[in-house]
Amino acid sequence: MMFMGFLLPTKLPYYLSEMGASALVSGLMLGWHGICNAGTCLMYRRIASRCGRSAILTFSFLLMGIGFGMLYFTGSYLVVFVSVALVGAGMGMIMPAMINWLATTATSRNSGKIMGGFYVANNIGQFSCSILAAPILLYVVSYSNLFLAIGLLAFAACALCLFATMVSRKNADDPVGGSCHL
What is the pLDDT of residues 36-55, one digit of tens each? Predict the structure, then answer.
């Protein structure tokens, strides 16, 4: 999750530079990403009251996959604007969903380990972003191909979450199953 989420702010400026964009455009796009991320974080309570955790994660990874995939097909700043919004919105729902999930499953005996482990994984994802992206970029040759590869990774995560959603629907004891009541 954090590898995908941190890839956009670290690689988008290079991608936009290839399109001929200025540093100002890169900054505005990254600011827009942050606004979309924060906006969906703020709406998380409303979303969570209607949708189960698995459904939220499925939809979040779907948004990120679409957003990253759109960056492969674009040459337009408008499409980049929409793509960045989708990735930001997806990240804005994933973080509170994961933290909520861990907090509700943790007990007083293991909460330090669980939450500490989450933040270690979170920071490792950010740290490893450039280290892992560099060889992928060498293999796929361009930033648009890199974003496509990450989009496919997000779609794979979406499929795993969709599978978890279907399993949770079959489990009647799951109070936060995958259903969504909009």
Answer: 999 999 999 999 888 888 88
CA angle 32, 36, 41 (to 5 degrees): 145
Backbone Cα Rg of the chain:
17
User: Which pair of tokens denotes residue 88?
Assistant: 């930001």
Confidence (pTM): 0.87
Strands (E), 2-151: none
Q: What angle do CA 80, 82, 85 make, to 5 degrees?
A: 105
Helix, strand or coil, per DSSP, at residue 51 = strand
Tokens coding 37:
């991320």
Kindly state the percentage of the chain with pLDDT values over 90: 54
Q: Is 110 exposed, middle or buried (0-12, 13-18, 19+ CB in 10 A)?
A: exposed
Rounding to the nearest 10 degrees, give the CA dihedral for residues 114, 6, 150, 21.
170
